[in-house]
Specification:
With 173 residues, the protein is of the alpha/beta class. It has a single domain, classed as Uracil-DNA Glycosylase, subunit E. Helix content is 32%, strand content 20%. It has 6 helices and 7 strands, in the order E-E-H-H-H-E-E-E-H-E-H-E-H. The mean pLDDT is 92.
């Protein structure tokens, strides 16, 4: 396979009530085809977040948006554009980061969670620029990836870890 230069084409999901921001690295091929986050059927994001929030797993884009907003969760990706081979995070290069101020200036985000180590490292490298912000970023927490490529983590273990981190934050409301 060859590298393709790809630009993120769909908007973040958030509103003026969003208190948690969950950042992925860049949409998979399937997510880009669906034009929405975590579109690969094997990605466990929707199962994990629904379990953490004590909700049924949302189905369809509109239901997923409602689920996120009802639970005060914003979702976006770190990368605005990059060169990538398929959906492989390990192949990402020539990155342009998204401007987190798009969300952080409009929503009372109190904690940023990255979905995986790659998203965390990319966030630190391309988005954590204090000079672009008048106020410091909220707390940033790295969570294990819900990607099917993270096969070392079972659904139960992912859910338990996400619940411990996000659940702890939700109890501080």
């Amino acid at each position: 396979m060859e590298y393709t230069h790809v630009t993120h084409t769909f908007e973040p999901v958030f509103d003026t009530e969003s208190e948690i921001l969950i950042l992925g690295s860049f949409p998979s091929v399937k997510s880009r085809e669906n034009r929405f986050y975590y579109g690969h059927p094997q990605n466990r994001f929707w199962k994990v977040t629904a379990a953490v929030c004590g909700c049924d797993v949302p189905v369809g884009i509109e239901e997923k948006k409602r689920f996120l907003l009802q639970n005060k969760i914003a979702v976006w990706d770190v990368i605005a554009s990059c060169d990538i081979i398929g959906s492989s995070d390990s192949s990402i290069r020539n990155v342009t980061g998204n401007d987190m101020n798009v969300i952080l200036e409009k929503a009372p985000v109190r904690c940023i969670f990255t979905n995986g180590d790659k998203a965390y490292r990319l966030f630190l490298k391309y988005c954590m620029d204090q000079k672009r912000r008048e106020t410091p970023y909220p707390e940033v927490c790295r969570l294990p990836s819900t990607s099917p490529a993270n096969a070392a983590w079972s659904l139960e273990r992912l859910t338990e870890t996400w619940r411990a981190e996000i659940g702890h934050f939700l109890t501080r409301r």
